[in-house]
Specification:
By secondary structure, the protein is mainly alpha-helical. Helix content is 67%, strand content 0%. The protein is elongated, with a radius of gyration of 50 Å.
């Protein structure tokens, strides 16, 4: 089984200073600790929970714990080789190394990591890292993304405009513009494509929402129109008694009063009733009884 550091970084000739901790070989203990902090934050379990990140976090923590010991560091500087599995434990989990990290620097949260990123971004320290790696990798911006901490593809334009091109003009770094501009152009096209895809997805969602709103508005409008076109229902009213029935009742009441029962009817319809009662007593009594039965 290969050493933990070899597993994490995929190579047996990995250098603890340059590759793992990204610090000069002649660094002092303070610089070594700072480098460990920066690199470990990139792969800290609270920030990155991928399996490869966990393994690198373990390897970074192990490298620092090994190099901070003066005797072990001297042995590594002399031989350039890592101890065998029999000499060092290589299978410790990220939880144990996380405890080790927290013991040195205190508990780490995503907020603390982001706070560190804000301080590092656009700082003199980031500028130095960018320029040194630009010179080291001869303008290969992809390599810069791998070796400058907390870097993203969108940082490349800022690096080129703010630091790399001015440094080339001043002679601080060699001119690898042909290489870097080619890579930058390709990455910019990629970012633009991703941006357009997100924009199209957003427009699609908005169109669907607007279509739904318009459809609902049309539905409400059509419903309102149909309601307006429908005839209004007449309010139910109690059936009025026919005028004939009223007249009959009035006649009966008049008869009871002893007068001519149809005098009022004659007056209403312009017919004279002076010739006397057209109903005999028998007929009147029969009609009266029938009327009472209907009630």
């Amino acid at each position: 089984m290969s050493h933990l550091v070899h597993q994490a970084f995929g190579r047996k000739d990995v250098n603890l200073y340059e590759v793992v901790l990204k610090v000069p070989k002649d660094c002092n203990l303070g610089q070594l600790r700072k480098a460990y902090y920066k690199q470990a934050l990139l792969f800290h379990p609270d920030k990155n929970n991928s399996e490869s990140a966990k393994l690198k976090f373990q390897a970074i923590s192990w490298s620092y714990s090994y190099l901070k010991d003066p005797a072990k560091r001297a042995d590594y500087d002399r031989t350039g080789s890592l101890p065998s599995e029999d000499d060092e434990t290589t299978g410790e989990g990220s939880a144990q190394w996380k405890d080790y990290f927290d013991t040195i620097f205190g508990k780490v949260s995503v907020g603390k990591i982001n706070e560190f990123a804000l301080k590092y971004k656009m700082s003199k320290e980031e500028e130095n890292d960018v320029l040194s790696n630009y010179q080291k990798f001869k303008g290969d911006l992809n390599k810069l993304l791998e070796h400058v901490i907390l870097s993203e593809e969108r940082d490349l334009c800022r690096w080129m405009e703010d630091w790399i091109r001015p440094a080339i003009e001043k002679g601080k770094v060699s001119d690898y513009s042909k290489t870097s501009n080619k890579i930058l152009k390709r990455i910019q096209a990629k970012l633009e494509k991703e941006k357009n895809k997100k924009g199209e997805a957003h427009d699609s969602d908005r169109t669907e929402t607007e279509g739904s709103d318009e459809e609902r508005a049309r539905t409400r409008k059509n419903t309102a129109s149909r309601k307006k076109s429908l005839p209004k229902k007449a309010k139910p009213t109690k059936a009025k008694k026919s005028s004939g029935e009223d007249d009959l009742i009035a006649a009966i009441r008049n008869r009871r009063a002893g007068g001519n029962p149809f005098a009022a009817l004659g007056a209403r319809y312009g017919v004279s009733m002076d010739d006397g009662d057209p109903l005999d007593d028998e007929t009147f009594t029969r009609l009266q009884s029938a009327h009472k039965g209907e009630k």
